[in-house]
């Protein structure tokens, strides 16, 4: 670990705003699927679907070949995951009881932007310092949610994220950034009534009270990441084997 010069802090902040800040601004767009707007315009979810598909297409065009491939996998796995967790398990419920089209495409967009931020050279250079800062922010957020909103479920999931990252140091920057991004989107979406979470975990476990939303739901993004990674390696077996050989050679040096 070492001190980050002010000039580099500014560069990292600008990069974060450029890659991730767009989603914070985009939270306002979730109003299109709000309960309030639905009372005045019943086709509002169609509008936000069109907006998201347009944004996804533009982001897809600007992305690298590898990121494009991962985005497609993220959409497919996102659809499967949403139906499993929302419709089948009832872990959370969307306003119309469906899985809105903008959601899995939104997952893929978040996945791509966070991936690019986490892999940026200046972020990798100071990854330990940034990770420690994110750990602090996330810890305060999860503890605050638990203390003020009795969000034990969210706190446990946050601890689960931290536990999984103990053995995945290379993924820490990605998932800590993902945690923060998802937390902001969830707060906005539930505030508008686009979706909601039950008062207890899965609406079943009475001893696990939950806030709407719980703080640590990015835990489930591990499944999305693992799914995309496994799919990518299966489809690109030759490239993956070549990459592993290069890593082994570098370690031996």
How is this fold's topology laid out?
Blueprint: H1 6-19, H2 21-26, H3 35-38, H4 44-62, H5 65-88, E1 93-94, H6 102-119, H7 121-125, H8 127-149, H9 152-166, H10 172-192, E2 195-196, E3 200-201, E4 205-209, H11 221-235, H12 237-252
Antiparallel strand pairs: 1-2, 3-4
Helix pairs in contact: 4-6, 5-6, 5-11, 6-10, 8-9, 8-10
Describe this structure in words.
The chain is mainly α and 253 residues long. A hairpin with a 3-residue loop joins strand 3 and strand 4. The longest helix has 24 residues. The chain has twelve helices and four strands, in the order αααααβαααααβββαα. It has a two-stranded antiparallel sheet. The two termini are 23 Å apart. The C terminus is likely disordered. It has one domain. Helix 5 packs across helix 6, helix 5 crosses helix 11 and helix 8 runs parallel beside helix 10.
Summarize the structure.
With 253 residues, the protein is mainly α. The protein has twelve helices and four strands; from the N terminus they run αααααβαααααβββαα.
Features:
253 residues; 4 strands; mainly alpha; two-stranded antiparallel ribbon; 4% strand; 12 helices; single chain
Q: What structural class do the secondary elements suggest?
A: mainly alpha
Look at the structure and give the mean pLDDT. 86
Q: What's the number of structural domains?
A: 1
Across the major sheet, the strand order is 1-2
The biggest beta sheet is recorded as:
2 strands, antiparallel
Distance between the termini: 23 Å
